[in-house]
Design brief:
The chain is mostly helical. It is built from 5 helices and no strands. The termini are far apart.
């Protein structure tokens, strides 16, 4: 159960990064914070949501979910962490709805590159 919870926590932070970074970029741009223009951060954020979109459109289960589920089969107990993080991360809706939401969100992330462009890294 401990290893499955660790995988679930990693999954939660992945989701938090994908979802939370977009409002952070918008607010940071509004407050003129320079880190929101960091190309590494921005392209990693775009890659993270595109990975979710591609696996959703291909009908592939998230590797973290598969890994967690296989670990949970070894130990059938449920944990406090599992209960609450599953409540936050997973929704009982059709896959087509999730795929559409992922695509729309990826579109917002991509449009944000136009609204808040990444800055070039200066090499001295």
């Amino acid at each position: 159960m401990f290893l499955a919870d660790i995988v679930l926590i990693i999954h939660f932070f992945y989701v938090l990064f994908v979802v939370g970074s977009l409002p952070v970029i918008w607010v940071g741009a509004r407050l003129k914070m320079t880190f929101v223009g960091n190309p590494w951060f921005r392209y990693l954020h775009l890659a993270a949501i595109l990975f979710v979109v591609v696996e959703s459109l291909l009908g592939v289960a998230c590797p973290l979910t598969v890994w967690e589920n296989s670990l949970r089969q070894i130990e059938m107990d449920s944990s406090f962490i599992q209960h609450w993080l599953h409540f936050i991360i997973f929704y009982n809706v059709p896959e087509t709805v999730l795929a559409a939401v992922y695509c729309l969100f990826a579109g917002l992330v991509a449009m944000t590159f136009k609204w808040v462009p990444p800055r070039r890294i200066k090499v001295d």
